[in-house]
Amino acid sequence: MVISAEEPNWSGLPGELLDRIGHRLAKLKDFIRFKAVCKSWRRALFLSRFRQSIPWLMLPHCRDSISQSARVGCKGTDSCRCFYDLEEQTFRHIELPQSIDKTCCGSAFGWVFMKEKLPSVMLLNPLSKDQISLPPITAFSDVLGFRPELVGREYLYVKQDGLRVAKGKKQVQRRFIIRVSFSGEPASEECIVMVIRGFDDCTTLAFCSPNRDDKWTIIPHGGNNPDLPNEILFEDMVFWRGRFYVFVYTGTVYVCDLSHQHCPKLSLFLDESSPQTRKIFRGATSFYLLTSPVDDELMVITRHLRYPNDDLVAVNTHHVRYQENEDDDGVANDDEWSDDSDYADDDGQTTDDDDHDDELPVFVPYKDDGHGKVDRYIIDSESDDDDVIAADKTPLLTDKFRVFKARECRTGWDEVDSIGDFALFLGYNKPTWVSTRDHPELSPNSIYFTDDATGSHYPRKFAGADMGVYDLTTHTISPFYRTASVHKNPSLIFPLPVWISPSNY
Fold first, then answer.
1. pTM to 2 decimals?
2. What is the pLDDT of residues 208-266, one digit of tens each?
3. Strands, DSSP E only, in 188-285?
4. Which residues 6+ apart lie within 8 Å of 264 measured at CB?
5. What's the angle, vertex CA 242, arms to CA 211 and CA 296, rounded to 5?
6. CA atoms within 13 A on the CB side of 247
7. Where along the chain do its domains lie?
């Protein structure tokens, strides 16, 4: 007797069961394979929230930088984007035509903030490929217009002092929006996107709701807020306990009150009172404001760059100007655009503001007493001092990180020497903590960092290569990703890599 058994109807499994299975999937590759079985399985996982606990490294398009050794699995199209999976030590390839010719200056909750040379900006989820349009660059009240025919001077921008200047589209794409922070999931109705933006020696804050607003709201300070200085150099921000907190390189923290959206306020939250700590902060080149993983308190990480030459160290990037290379973009004169307003420099002369970027970064000799006390002085770029060297000859590299925690009394910061059994991922992304107990393949008490010092890399000969793992115990740096074996040009990875936490929502 022959017994015929029916083939199992895998597509008919109950949705509730599939959903429970989906929530137990620990790796992204398993999640993707699960969804690929059939339509019913894919529908069942539509609401299953997956987020990779160990971030991926989002790299340039394969056609731009990736060598043949990393092309396995790549479809060979111009829109194929490469991701480095740190957990699996392998490359992933995703078709992302939405990211062509765009750069990223922020990521959180699985979404990346994308900028392009045109005024439009957007949020992109690389895994689900969903997009959320944000108000364009021209929706800032101090951006007066955009004219693509004026090559090298496409944007008309008004400074805080009322002077109007022309900005090139490449300069705006790379440097106008500096940092991005999210109050929550970008797809939610309540989400607010906050940005640090601006040029020259002053930055401002602006925010919008991705799902409600068609313009950016600028948070005033200076003349509109007499309790605050006219010029503030915001470095980084974090959404903490229902509000955005913003860090200034001197150690000061401001808090944003958005309870009345049409009348946002900025007020002092923490003022560093220790001259020694202020000195350390002034010696850093990058800052990351975040919250601690255990007790949810404010922390700040300082990043210190230096040349490979032991005698030279970088001055804080806000104190010097950088050479802006607009590549093949020339400067076009247009009487109508010029007549619309005068572009005046600080001396009252009409100007294309890109002319200010002809100077190179300045670096000076320094002495370290072994306790991080560094004496640094800014040398004018016109100086004949032999210690001033050009930035396009030697790459800037990370020397060290230092970790500080806010005092409970909000009077300043205390340095801490360990982050315990955690690995911290830093760069353009929202700082991400990962438990090394749950993921022993990661190094404890270490910082996994990417290159995010955009300004210090013009003319971009060494952009992107400053990546690695900084061990806070041994104060050493080791590679997690070897650029020399992956990229055609080991000294250039552009657009800059960024950590993302892959998410399907």
1. 0.79
2. 999 789 999 999 876 556 667 777 889 999 999 999 999 998 899 999 999 877 788 89
3. 193-197, 204-208, 217-219, 234-240, 243-248, 253-257, 265-270
4. 207, 217, 219, 220, 256, 257, 258
5. 130
6. 30
7. 10-50, 52-94+275-320+359-505, 101-271+324-346
